[in-house]
Amino acid sequence: MANVIRLRKGLDIHLQGKAEETKLNLKSNGHFALVPDDFEGVVPKVVVREGDVVKAGDALFVNKLYPEVRFASPVSGKVTAVVRGERRKVLCVKVEADAEQQYVDYGKKDVTKMDGKAVVDALLEAGLFGYINQLPYAISTNPSVMPKAIFVSALRDKPLAGNFEFEVKGQEQDFVTGLQALSNIAKTYLGLGIQPDLQAKLQQMNVEKDVELTVFEGKCPAGNVGVQVNHIDPVNKGEVVWTIGDPTVVLFIGRLFNTGKVNLTRTVALCGSEVKKPCYADMLVGQELSTLLSNSYDADHSVRIINGNVLTGTVTTKDGFLGAHTSEITVIPEGDDNNEMLGWIMPRFGQFSVSRSYFSWLFGKKQYALDARVKGGERHMIMSGEYDKVLPMDIYGEYLIKAIIAGDIDKMEQLGIYEVAPEDFALAEFVDSSKLELQRIVREGLNNLRKENA
Q1: Residue 356 has pLDDT above 90, yes or no
Q2: How does DSSP classify residue 339?
Q3: How far apart are the first and last CA of the chain?
Q4: How far, in Å, are 60, 137, 228, 231, 446 from residue 415 at the CA level?
Protein backbone atom coordinates (compact mmCIF):
# COMPACT_ATOMS: atom_id res chain seq x y z
CA MET A 1 0.00 0.00 0.00
CA ALA A 2 1.16 3.51 -0.82
CA ASN A 3 1.85 6.02 1.93
CA VAL A 4 -0.51 9.02 2.00
CA ILE A 5 0.62 12.56 2.84
CA ARG A 6 -2.03 15.28 3.12
CA LEU A 7 -1.00 18.87 2.50
CA ARG A 8 -3.10 21.76 3.77
CA LYS A 9 -1.28 24.68 2.18
CA GLY A 10 -1.38 25.57 -1.50
CA LEU A 11 -3.62 27.12 -4.13
CA ASP A 12 -5.46 25.74 -7.15
CA ILE A 13 -5.94 28.30 -9.93
CA HIS A 14 -8.79 27.22 -12.20
CA LEU A 15 -8.22 28.52 -15.73
CA GLN A 16 -10.21 28.18 -18.92
CA GLY A 17 -8.82 26.08 -21.73
CA LYS A 18 -7.85 22.75 -20.20
CA ALA A 19 -6.91 20.20 -22.84
CA GLU A 20 -9.49 17.57 -23.70
CA GLU A 21 -8.21 14.01 -23.79
CA THR A 22 -8.07 13.77 -27.56
CA LYS A 23 -4.96 13.75 -29.72
CA LEU A 24 -4.17 15.98 -32.66
CA ASN A 25 -2.22 14.28 -35.45
CA LEU A 26 0.73 16.51 -36.32
CA LYS A 27 2.98 16.38 -39.34
CA SER A 28 6.36 17.83 -38.49
CA ASN A 29 7.93 20.45 -40.75
CA GLY A 30 11.32 18.85 -40.07
CA HIS A 31 12.76 21.75 -38.04
CA PHE A 32 14.22 20.79 -34.67
CA ALA A 33 16.53 22.43 -32.15
CA LEU A 34 17.99 21.37 -28.81
CA VAL A 35 18.27 24.30 -26.39
CA PRO A 36 20.99 24.17 -23.68
CA ASP A 37 19.07 26.59 -21.45
CA ASP A 38 16.49 23.82 -20.92
CA PHE A 39 19.13 22.10 -18.77
CA GLU A 40 19.82 24.36 -15.80
CA GLY A 41 23.45 24.57 -14.72
CA VAL A 42 24.87 23.07 -17.92
CA VAL A 43 27.72 24.89 -19.69
CA PRO A 44 27.36 23.60 -23.27
CA LYS A 45 30.23 22.61 -25.52
CA VAL A 46 28.99 21.89 -29.05
CA VAL A 47 30.48 18.69 -30.52
CA VAL A 48 28.97 18.96 -34.02
CA ARG A 49 29.49 21.41 -36.87
CA GLU A 50 27.14 22.92 -39.39
CA GLY A 51 26.65 20.39 -42.17
CA ASP A 52 27.31 17.32 -40.02
CA VAL A 53 24.93 14.37 -40.38
CA VAL A 54 23.66 12.86 -37.12
CA LYS A 55 21.42 10.02 -36.07
CA ALA A 56 18.79 10.19 -33.35
CA GLY A 57 20.78 9.57 -30.18
CA ASP A 58 24.04 11.15 -31.35
CA ALA A 59 25.36 13.92 -29.09
CA LEU A 60 24.84 17.53 -30.19
CA PHE A 61 26.61 19.09 -27.20
CA VAL A 62 28.14 18.04 -23.89
CA ASN A 63 28.40 19.65 -20.48
CA LYS A 64 31.75 21.44 -20.51
CA LEU A 65 32.07 20.91 -16.73
CA TYR A 66 31.41 17.16 -17.05
CA PRO A 67 32.17 16.14 -20.67
CA GLU A 68 30.81 12.63 -20.13
CA VAL A 69 27.30 14.15 -19.84
CA ARG A 70 26.07 14.23 -23.43
CA PHE A 71 22.81 15.57 -24.86
CA ALA A 72 21.28 13.54 -27.65
CA SER A 73 19.76 14.72 -30.90
CA PRO A 74 16.01 13.98 -30.97
CA VAL A 75 16.12 13.21 -34.70
CA SER A 76 18.43 12.07 -37.45
CA GLY A 77 19.31 14.63 -40.08
CA LYS A 78 21.66 17.44 -40.98
CA VAL A 79 22.94 20.04 -38.52
CA THR A 80 21.87 23.33 -40.12
CA ALA A 81 23.04 25.87 -37.53
CA VAL A 82 24.67 26.43 -34.18
CA VAL A 83 22.93 29.60 -33.02
CA ARG A 84 24.89 31.82 -30.66
CA GLY A 85 23.96 34.95 -28.73
CA GLU A 86 25.90 37.54 -26.79
CA ARG A 87 29.44 36.56 -25.81
CA ARG A 88 29.05 33.50 -28.07
CA LYS A 89 26.57 31.87 -25.73
CA VAL A 90 25.07 28.76 -27.39
CA LEU A 91 21.33 29.39 -27.81
CA CYS A 92 20.46 26.20 -29.68
CA VAL A 93 21.69 23.58 -32.14
CA LYS A 94 19.34 23.20 -35.13
CA VAL A 95 18.81 19.97 -37.05
CA GLU A 96 16.86 19.43 -40.28
CA ALA A 97 15.22 16.01 -39.89
CA ASP A 98 15.48 13.22 -42.44
CA ALA A 99 12.32 11.91 -44.07
CA GLU A 100 13.30 8.43 -42.89
CA GLN A 101 14.60 8.43 -39.33
CA GLN A 102 17.74 6.53 -38.34
CA TYR A 103 18.65 5.72 -34.74
CA VAL A 104 21.85 4.88 -32.92
CA ASP A 105 21.38 1.34 -31.59
CA TYR A 106 22.54 1.18 -27.98
CA GLY A 107 21.21 -2.34 -27.54
CA LYS A 108 18.33 -3.65 -25.47
CA LYS A 109 19.19 -4.27 -21.82
CA ASP A 110 17.63 -6.21 -18.95
CA VAL A 111 17.59 -3.68 -16.10
CA THR A 112 17.01 -6.41 -13.51
CA LYS A 113 20.54 -7.66 -14.23
CA MET A 114 22.24 -4.25 -14.13
CA ASP A 115 23.83 -2.44 -11.21
CA GLY A 116 23.71 1.30 -10.60
CA LYS A 117 26.99 2.04 -12.39
CA ALA A 118 25.87 0.19 -15.51
CA VAL A 119 22.61 2.17 -15.57
CA VAL A 120 24.44 5.49 -15.20
CA ASP A 121 26.93 4.54 -17.92
CA ALA A 122 24.09 3.60 -20.30
CA LEU A 123 22.30 6.91 -19.70
CA LEU A 124 25.54 8.85 -20.20
CA GLU A 125 26.30 7.03 -23.45
CA ALA A 126 22.80 7.65 -24.85
CA GLY A 127 22.69 11.32 -23.89
CA LEU A 128 19.79 11.05 -21.43
CA PHE A 129 21.59 11.48 -18.11
CA GLY A 130 21.36 15.29 -18.26
CA TYR A 131 17.55 15.13 -18.02
CA ILE A 132 17.92 14.17 -14.34
CA ASN A 133 18.14 17.09 -11.90
CA GLN A 134 19.44 17.34 -8.36
CA LEU A 135 18.90 19.07 -5.06
CA PRO A 136 20.63 21.14 -3.80
CA TYR A 137 20.82 23.93 -6.40
CA ALA A 138 17.99 22.56 -8.64
CA ILE A 139 20.32 21.95 -11.59
CA SER A 140 21.01 19.19 -14.08
CA THR A 141 22.96 16.64 -12.08
CA ASN A 142 26.39 15.12 -12.71
CA PRO A 143 27.72 11.59 -12.24
CA SER A 144 30.54 12.55 -9.87
CA VAL A 145 28.38 12.35 -6.72
CA MET A 146 25.92 9.53 -6.15
CA PRO A 147 22.61 10.50 -4.50
CA LYS A 148 21.24 9.33 -1.17
CA ALA A 149 17.86 8.87 -2.93
CA ILE A 150 16.01 9.54 -6.20
CA PHE A 151 12.60 11.25 -6.27
CA VAL A 152 10.16 11.08 -9.17
CA SER A 153 6.89 13.05 -9.28
CA ALA A 154 4.12 11.77 -11.54
CA LEU A 155 1.68 14.38 -10.25
CA ARG A 156 1.08 17.40 -12.48
CA ASP A 157 -1.12 19.88 -10.67
CA LYS A 158 -0.15 23.30 -11.98
CA PRO A 159 -2.84 25.29 -13.83
CA LEU A 160 -3.87 23.56 -17.10
CA ALA A 161 -1.20 20.89 -16.57
CA GLY A 162 -1.24 17.89 -18.88
CA ASN A 163 -2.63 14.65 -17.45
CA PHE A 164 0.20 12.13 -17.08
CA GLU A 165 -2.31 9.27 -16.70
CA PHE A 166 -3.47 10.04 -20.24
CA GLU A 167 0.11 10.22 -21.55
CA VAL A 168 1.31 6.98 -20.00
CA LYS A 169 -1.56 4.80 -21.27
CA GLY A 170 -0.05 1.96 -23.30
CA GLN A 171 3.45 2.85 -22.09
CA GLU A 172 3.23 1.49 -18.56
CA GLN A 173 5.97 -1.08 -19.20
CA ASP A 174 8.42 1.63 -20.30
CA PHE A 175 7.54 3.63 -17.17
CA VAL A 176 8.11 0.65 -14.89
CA THR A 177 11.39 -0.22 -16.65
CA GLY A 178 12.57 3.35 -16.13
CA LEU A 179 11.71 3.21 -12.44
CA GLN A 180 13.47 -0.14 -12.06
CA ALA A 181 16.60 1.29 -13.70
CA LEU A 182 16.61 4.28 -11.34
CA SER A 183 16.09 2.03 -8.31
CA ASN A 184 19.35 0.25 -9.19
CA ILE A 185 21.19 3.53 -8.59
CA ALA A 186 19.63 4.52 -5.24
CA LYS A 187 16.46 4.18 -3.20
CA THR A 188 13.69 5.60 -5.39
CA TYR A 189 10.47 7.31 -4.35
CA LEU A 190 7.51 7.87 -6.69
CA GLY A 191 5.06 10.63 -5.81
CA LEU A 192 1.50 10.30 -7.11
CA GLY A 193 -1.72 12.25 -6.77
CA ILE A 194 -5.15 10.72 -6.43
CA GLN A 195 -4.65 8.72 -9.63
CA PRO A 196 -6.43 5.41 -8.95
CA ASP A 197 -5.98 3.98 -12.45
CA LEU A 198 -2.24 4.66 -12.60
CA GLN A 199 -1.69 3.53 -9.02
CA ALA A 200 -3.62 0.31 -9.58
CA LYS A 201 -1.71 -0.41 -12.79
CA LEU A 202 1.67 0.14 -11.12
CA GLN A 203 0.73 -2.05 -8.16
CA GLN A 204 -0.50 -4.72 -10.56
CA MET A 205 2.92 -4.61 -12.24
CA ASN A 206 4.55 -5.04 -8.81
CA VAL A 207 6.49 -1.79 -9.01
CA GLU A 208 6.47 -1.49 -5.21
CA LYS A 209 9.22 -4.10 -4.93
CA ASP A 210 11.58 -1.54 -6.49
CA VAL A 211 10.02 1.85 -5.69
CA GLU A 212 8.31 3.37 -2.65
CA LEU A 213 4.95 4.90 -3.61
CA THR A 214 3.60 7.99 -1.87
CA VAL A 215 0.23 9.60 -2.59
CA PHE A 216 0.03 13.38 -2.05
CA GLU A 217 -3.39 14.84 -1.35
CA GLY A 218 -3.67 18.59 -1.51
CA LYS A 219 -3.60 21.65 -3.70
CA CYS A 220 -0.86 22.83 -6.04
CA PRO A 221 2.17 22.66 -5.56
CA ALA A 222 1.80 19.14 -4.13
CA GLY A 223 3.19 17.86 -7.44
CA ASN A 224 6.47 19.77 -7.11
CA VAL A 225 9.23 17.23 -6.57
CA GLY A 226 10.91 19.62 -4.09
CA VAL A 227 7.77 19.65 -1.94
CA GLN A 228 7.71 15.86 -2.00
CA VAL A 229 11.38 15.65 -0.99
CA ASN A 230 10.69 18.04 1.89
CA HIS A 231 7.98 15.77 3.28
CA ILE A 232 9.69 12.42 2.71
CA ASP A 233 13.44 12.87 3.20
CA PRO A 234 14.65 16.51 3.40
CA VAL A 235 18.04 17.49 2.01
CA ASN A 236 20.68 18.62 4.50
CA LYS A 237 23.94 20.39 3.75
CA GLY A 238 26.38 18.00 2.13
CA GLU A 239 23.67 15.63 0.87
CA VAL A 240 22.51 15.16 -2.74
CA VAL A 241 19.26 13.76 -4.08
CA TRP A 242 18.38 13.30 -7.73
CA THR A 243 14.98 14.55 -8.83
CA ILE A 244 12.71 13.99 -11.84
CA GLY A 245 9.82 16.43 -11.74
CA ASP A 246 8.94 15.58 -15.35
CA PRO A 247 7.71 11.94 -15.36
CA THR A 248 8.12 11.70 -19.15
CA VAL A 249 11.88 11.48 -18.50
CA VAL A 250 11.23 8.09 -16.89
CA LEU A 251 9.56 7.04 -20.16
CA PHE A 252 12.66 8.19 -22.08
CA ILE A 253 14.80 6.00 -19.81
CA GLY A 254 12.49 3.00 -20.06
CA ARG A 255 12.33 3.19 -23.86
CA LEU A 256 16.13 3.26 -24.04
CA PHE A 257 16.48 -0.02 -22.16
CA ASN A 258 13.46 -1.72 -23.78
CA THR A 259 14.28 -0.78 -27.39
CA GLY A 260 17.95 0.25 -27.36
CA LYS A 261 17.04 3.56 -29.01
CA VAL A 262 16.67 7.17 -27.88
CA ASN A 263 13.02 8.15 -28.34
CA LEU A 264 12.24 11.66 -27.05
CA THR A 265 8.54 11.63 -27.97
CA ARG A 266 6.26 13.21 -25.38
CA THR A 267 2.55 14.00 -25.17
CA VAL A 268 2.03 17.76 -24.97
CA ALA A 269 -1.12 19.59 -23.89
CA LEU A 270 -2.11 22.53 -26.10
CA CYS A 271 -4.12 24.61 -23.65
CA GLY A 272 -5.18 28.08 -22.57
CA SER A 273 -8.23 30.31 -22.90
CA GLU A 274 -7.11 31.56 -26.34
CA VAL A 275 -6.85 28.07 -27.87
CA LYS A 276 -9.82 27.18 -30.08
CA LYS A 277 -9.74 23.44 -29.43
CA PRO A 278 -7.52 22.50 -26.46
CA CYS A 279 -6.17 18.99 -26.95
CA TYR A 280 -3.03 16.85 -26.81
CA ALA A 281 -0.40 16.07 -29.42
CA ASP A 282 2.61 13.77 -29.60
CA MET A 283 5.78 15.78 -30.26
CA LEU A 284 9.51 15.30 -30.07
CA VAL A 285 11.69 17.36 -27.76
CA GLY A 286 12.99 20.32 -29.78
CA GLN A 287 10.24 20.22 -32.40
CA GLU A 288 9.27 23.59 -33.89
CA LEU A 289 6.00 24.84 -32.40
CA SER A 290 4.62 26.29 -35.64
CA THR A 291 3.04 22.96 -36.62
CA LEU A 292 1.20 22.76 -33.29
CA LEU A 293 0.16 26.41 -33.13
CA SER A 294 -0.89 26.87 -36.75
CA ASN A 295 -4.53 28.06 -36.77
CA SER A 296 -4.95 27.05 -33.13
CA TYR A 297 -5.86 30.54 -31.90
CA ASP A 298 -7.22 33.82 -33.27
CA ALA A 299 -4.26 35.63 -34.83
CA ASP A 300 -6.05 38.97 -34.42
CA HIS A 301 -5.80 38.73 -30.62
CA SER A 302 -2.76 39.84 -28.65
CA VAL A 303 -1.63 36.63 -26.97
CA ARG A 304 1.24 35.26 -24.93
CA ILE A 305 2.56 31.86 -25.97
CA ILE A 306 4.19 30.01 -23.07
CA ASN A 307 6.59 27.10 -23.39
CA GLY A 308 5.29 25.30 -20.32
CA ASN A 309 2.62 26.25 -17.79
CA VAL A 310 1.53 29.72 -16.74
CA LEU A 311 3.47 29.66 -13.46
CA THR A 312 6.91 28.41 -14.47
CA GLY A 313 6.99 28.41 -18.29
CA THR A 314 8.97 30.73 -20.56
CA VAL A 315 7.64 33.12 -23.19
CA THR A 316 8.08 31.85 -26.74
CA THR A 317 6.75 32.32 -30.26
CA LYS A 318 5.44 30.16 -33.09
CA ASP A 319 9.03 29.84 -34.26
CA GLY A 320 10.15 28.51 -30.88
CA PHE A 321 10.95 24.89 -30.08
CA LEU A 322 9.43 22.45 -27.60
CA GLY A 323 11.40 22.52 -24.34
CA ALA A 324 13.15 19.45 -22.99
CA HIS A 325 10.89 19.34 -19.92
CA THR A 326 7.77 20.95 -21.42
CA SER A 327 4.46 19.11 -21.07
CA GLU A 328 2.18 22.06 -21.99
CA ILE A 329 2.09 24.81 -24.59
CA THR A 330 -0.17 27.50 -23.16
CA VAL A 331 -1.78 30.41 -24.99
CA ILE A 332 -3.39 33.17 -22.89
CA PRO A 333 -4.34 36.82 -23.54
CA GLU A 334 -1.43 39.25 -23.29
CA GLY A 335 -3.64 41.90 -21.74
CA ASP A 336 -1.89 44.86 -23.35
CA ASP A 337 -5.06 45.73 -25.30
CA ASN A 338 -7.35 45.58 -22.26
CA ASN A 339 -8.69 48.94 -21.09
CA GLU A 340 -10.79 48.73 -17.93
CA MET A 341 -13.14 51.50 -16.91
CA LEU A 342 -12.47 52.60 -13.31
CA GLY A 343 -9.86 49.85 -12.93
CA TRP A 344 -9.53 48.25 -9.50
CA ILE A 345 -12.63 49.93 -8.07
CA MET A 346 -14.95 47.74 -10.16
CA PRO A 347 -16.39 44.57 -8.55
CA ARG A 348 -14.62 42.36 -11.15
CA PHE A 349 -16.79 39.25 -11.18
CA GLY A 350 -14.60 37.74 -13.88
CA GLN A 351 -11.25 38.24 -12.13
CA PHE A 352 -9.52 35.89 -9.69
CA SER A 353 -8.40 37.05 -6.25
CA VAL A 354 -6.76 35.10 -3.46
CA SER A 355 -7.64 37.73 -0.84
CA ARG A 356 -11.34 37.90 -1.81
CA SER A 357 -10.89 41.48 -3.00
CA TYR A 358 -13.34 40.72 -5.82
CA PHE A 359 -16.82 39.20 -5.58
CA SER A 360 -15.70 36.36 -7.84
CA TRP A 361 -14.85 34.25 -4.78
CA LEU A 362 -18.60 33.72 -4.35
CA PHE A 363 -18.67 31.57 -7.50
CA GLY A 364 -16.56 28.72 -6.07
CA LYS A 365 -14.43 26.83 -8.61
CA LYS A 366 -15.21 29.12 -11.50
CA GLN A 367 -12.77 28.94 -14.42
CA TYR A 368 -11.06 32.21 -15.34
CA ALA A 369 -9.52 33.59 -18.54
CA LEU A 370 -6.64 35.42 -16.89
CA ASP A 371 -4.20 37.50 -18.93
CA ALA A 372 -0.48 38.13 -18.48
CA ARG A 373 -0.69 41.52 -16.78
CA VAL A 374 1.18 41.94 -13.49
CA LYS A 375 -1.23 44.69 -12.35
CA GLY A 376 1.21 46.78 -10.39
CA GLY A 377 4.87 47.55 -10.03
CA GLU A 378 7.54 46.20 -7.70
CA ARG A 379 7.20 47.48 -4.13
CA HIS A 380 8.91 47.10 -0.79
CA MET A 381 8.58 43.61 0.65
CA ILE A 382 5.81 43.29 3.22
CA MET A 383 6.09 40.53 5.87
CA SER A 384 2.45 39.49 5.60
CA GLY A 385 2.73 35.69 5.77
CA GLU A 386 1.15 35.34 2.30
CA TYR A 387 3.99 33.11 1.03
CA ASP A 388 3.41 30.62 3.85
CA LYS A 389 -0.21 30.07 2.83
CA VAL A 390 0.79 28.61 -0.54
CA LEU A 391 4.18 27.04 0.33
CA PRO A 392 3.64 23.57 1.88
CA MET A 393 7.25 23.19 3.00
CA ASP A 394 8.86 23.36 6.41
CA ILE A 395 10.71 26.60 5.68
CA TYR A 396 10.14 30.30 6.29
CA GLY A 397 9.69 31.53 2.73
CA GLU A 398 9.68 35.28 3.35
CA TYR A 399 12.77 35.18 5.57
CA LEU A 400 14.58 33.02 3.00
CA ILE A 401 13.82 35.50 0.22
CA LYS A 402 15.11 38.37 2.38
CA ALA A 403 18.32 36.44 3.12
CA ILE A 404 18.86 35.79 -0.61
CA ILE A 405 18.32 39.47 -1.48
CA ALA A 406 20.76 40.45 1.28
CA GLY A 407 23.32 37.88 0.12
CA ASP A 408 23.55 36.38 3.63
CA ILE A 409 24.83 32.87 2.88
CA ASP A 410 24.80 31.63 6.48
CA LYS A 411 21.20 32.72 6.91
CA MET A 412 20.23 31.20 3.56
CA GLU A 413 21.64 27.84 4.64
CA GLN A 414 19.90 28.00 8.01
CA LEU A 415 16.56 28.80 6.34
CA GLY A 416 16.68 25.78 4.02
CA ILE A 417 17.86 27.00 0.63
CA TYR A 418 19.33 23.57 -0.13
CA GLU A 419 15.80 22.13 -0.18
CA VAL A 420 14.15 24.53 -2.62
CA ALA A 421 13.89 25.08 -6.35
CA PRO A 422 12.63 28.23 -8.08
CA GLU A 423 9.38 26.50 -9.07
CA ASP A 424 8.53 26.02 -5.38
CA PHE A 425 8.06 29.80 -5.17
CA ALA A 426 5.92 30.08 -8.32
CA LEU A 427 2.64 30.33 -6.40
CA ALA A 428 4.18 32.67 -3.84
CA GLU A 429 5.20 34.90 -6.76
CA PHE A 430 1.61 34.77 -8.05
CA VAL A 431 0.09 35.93 -4.74
CA ASP A 432 2.92 38.32 -3.80
CA SER A 433 1.52 41.81 -3.21
CA SER A 434 5.04 43.21 -3.54
CA LYS A 435 5.28 41.98 -7.17
CA LEU A 436 8.77 40.53 -6.67
CA GLU A 437 10.19 38.07 -9.21
CA LEU A 438 10.66 35.36 -6.60
CA GLN A 439 11.67 32.57 -8.98
CA ARG A 440 14.44 34.73 -10.44
CA ILE A 441 15.59 35.72 -6.94
CA VAL A 442 15.74 32.08 -5.81
CA ARG A 443 17.62 31.04 -8.97
CA GLU A 444 20.21 33.80 -8.47
CA GLY A 445 20.57 32.82 -4.83
CA LEU A 446 21.15 29.16 -5.73
CA ASN A 447 23.67 30.10 -8.44
CA ASN A 448 25.60 32.34 -6.05
CA LEU A 449 25.63 29.65 -3.38
CA ARG A 450 26.89 27.08 -5.89
CA LYS A 451 29.78 29.37 -6.83
CA GLU A 452 30.67 29.92 -3.18
CA ASN A 453 30.68 26.18 -2.46
CA ALA A 454 32.54 25.19 -5.64
Answers
A1: no
A2: -
A3: 42
A4: 39, 14, 18, 16, 13
